[in-house]
Amino acid sequence: MELATAVPSPYLVPTDGRFDLAAASTAPPEDAPGKKANQEALDAAVSRLAKLQDKLYADDRTSILLVFQAMDAAGKDGTIRAVLSGVNPQGCQVFAFKSPSHEELEHDFLWRVNRALPERGRIGVWNRSHYEEVITVRANPQFLVNQRLPSRPPSLAQLWTQRFESIVDAERHWARNGTVILKFFLNVSRDEQKERLLARIDEEKGNWKFQLGDLEVRRQWPQYMAAYQDALAATSRPWAPWYCVPADNKPFMRRTVAEIVVATLERLELRYPELSAEQKAQLGAARAQLEAD
Length: 293
Description:
This protein is an alpha/beta fold. It has twelve helices and five strands. It has helices spanning 35-59, 76-83, 102-105, 111-114, 136-139, 144-147, 156-176, 190-202, 213-219, 221-235, 250-266, 277-292; strands at 63-70, 92-96, 123-127, 179-187, 242-246. Strands 2-3-1-4-5 form a five-stranded parallel β-sheet, sandwiched between helices. The longest helix has 25 residues, at 35-59. The termini are far apart.
């Protein structure tokens, strides 16, 4: 049975393939609340998420997978940190997917993420993901050489279509087996990214975040936007929805992501385990023993 997890949101990418990234806003709506209100709403969502995570862990039937994709300096790390600030680390696991290792290149492109799927009862976070194979690799097709594919379709366009199909099938399989999938594209504008990259250069404490490779990726902005456009349109499904969240305003972005996660968890039928009569009797006996100690 497929889990329809998409919650209503103005930032939900349609699941029928109709999506225009160029028309998606990178800034909050004009009537959006200010920084203080966003922080208060984030705090409230974080508190609710902590309680829901406790029940998710105890229920131990489903897992949550949060996928984050974005251009450099969009705020993935800070958003993950802010949204999960109240989560018990014991029930959470975070993976950051960088360039594939030699071992990973010896397998199909989904192999390394399959190994990182969250266990039942846990929240899994992927900072970048299998979508790099239809985004970064698409913008840099020379990376395909190292993948040594046994066969390739006549055109690269066909290859990306095949990978979209593989991704949709894999995510459907994960969902059928209890993984609730939420995918977030943090949609930062090119102008805002420029300001954030400049800040990393100008502020000494942020120097370590800046990499020269960021400039090369920035020069490829049109290629990356085309790749994101097609990836989001082709792979947003009820059981694995994409949310294209405005990222020019970090407080608004973090609040929005947190509220979508909480709303999704609240729709699940999570419950604490119910003890049998025999187990309750054992608890009573244990209580009597402790009181007599």
